[in-house]
Design a protein that fits this description.
two-stranded antiparallel ribbon; about 65% helix
């Protein structure tokens, strides 16, 4: 029995220390306990708030991620505290511990008390270890408790640093868009009088912000679950706007146009793909469907020649993007059907994936699509 108690205590201590190491110190932040705690707590809050009015549901979801921080820290401390208590209890007697109060005697409750005073470095002195082994154990527990507290502070600072990056990126996209629901409106200021201007610096800045955000979420996965009171600070809004901007530049203009030759544009598209794949694999409960097959060239060319909107969503959206970009670039020539069809086939998998990620992540995080489309800058509660 003593061996079983001792083994359980050591296992709890190691579990707490290991999870702190993997969550706070490991560059990929994949704590085996904390990650499950994050998803479980957010899922519970999302379930409990599902029938609430829209305003109160958003308020409840916004509390989930901030709550994860103290709960996670409490879990780490509790694991170490209970683990050490079990180790103390396995060898507790009047020879190994001094009980200054006559009413005190060896028990698991006293072991928890000793562990609590040790990890908090309070040390009231009414129960103290008299054995050198247990004196060393209490010192080690105090050091571990201090280490957990210190690492927790640095973890919180890192998490809110990434959240600030997400907020800055989202605010920048919101301010750039004349129509906050339409990614294409971000492109318009770069075509004064039909000539492309300052596209490359903007693409580089977006790529840099995207990479910083990607590395931040890999380092601090808890950031994914933060639900802001303003929808523009969310991951779904950010990726929809960046993806729409990059897709329009890359495939909305004819091949050879200088605006689509920005050297960093393929890099931005690669960054988007990497981050979408990571979030899909790590967080999303439902994976994306495959992109639909392109319509036949005959149907595509007929719709292009008629100038009427296609009854099918994806060709219609492509024609909308192309008309918008041709208008910005002041291109008067009619699109070449073969060249246009090739761009459509390249664009379709990217656009479908970008839209699927937007809808899936919004649903997973509890955002209403109307909040992300219509007024992302307004307060949700």
């Amino acid at each position: 029995m003593v061996l079983l108690i001792l083994t359980a205590g050591v296992a709890l201590i190691l579990a707490g220390i290991t999870d702190v190491f993997l969550t706070v110190l490991h560059p990929d932040g994949f704590g085996f306990l904390s990650s499950r705690l994050y998803s479980g707590l957010f899922g519970a809050v999302r379930f409990l708030t599902r029938l609430m009015p829209r305003k109160f549901r958003a308020l409840g979801l916004s509390m989930a991620a901030p709550l994860m921080v103290p709960v996670t820290i409490t879990m780490w401390i509790s694991l170490v505290l209970v683990g050490y208590a079990l180790v103390y209890y396995a060898g507790m007697n009047t020879q190994t511990f001094n009980f200054s109060n006559p009413g005190l005697e060896p028990s698991f409750g006293e072991a928890l008390y000793i562990s609590g005073t040790a990890i908090s470095t309070l040390g009231f002195g009414d129960v103290t270890p008299s054995s050198g082994f247990y004196q060393a154990l209490t010192v080690s527990e105090a050091l571990i408790g201090f280490g957990i507290l210190t690492l927790s502070i640095s973890y919180v600072v890192g998490v809110y640093g990434v959240l600030q990056q997400l907020g800055v990126l989202g605010a920048g996209l919101l301010h750039q868009a004349s129509d906050t629901a339409e990614p294409l409106s971000i492109v318009a200021p770069h075509f004064p009088d039909g000539e492309p201007r300052d596209i490359e610096p903007h693409v580089i800045a977006l790529h840099r912000s995207l990479v910083e955000l990607y590395e931040g979420i890999r380092r601090y996965p808890i950031v994914y679950y933060y639900h802001s009171r303003r929808a523009y600070r969310s991951l779904p809004y950010t990726f929809r706007m960046i993806g729409g901007f990059a897709g329009a530049l890359r495939w909305g203009l004819p091949r050879g146009h200088p605006a689509r030759q920005a050297p960093w544009l393929p890099t931005l598209l690669t960054g988007l793909e990497m981050m979408v794949s990571y979030i899909d694999e790590r967080f999303l409960s439902e994976h994306f469907e495959k992109a639909p097959a392109p319509v036949s060239f005959e149907r595509f060319a007929a719709a292009l020649e008629s100038g009427e909107d296609s009854p099918e969503f994806w060709p219609a959206r492509f024609f909308e993007i192309q008309r918008y970009m041709y208008g910005l670039a002041c291109i008067q020539d009619s699109p070449n059907p073969e060249e246009c069809y090739e761009r459509y086939k390249e664009w379709l998998p990217f656009a479908h994936r970008n839209r699927s990620f937007f809808e899936a992540s919004a649903k997973d995080l509890g955002y209403e699509l109307d909040d992300l489309y219509s007024n992302p800058g307004e307060r949700l509660f």
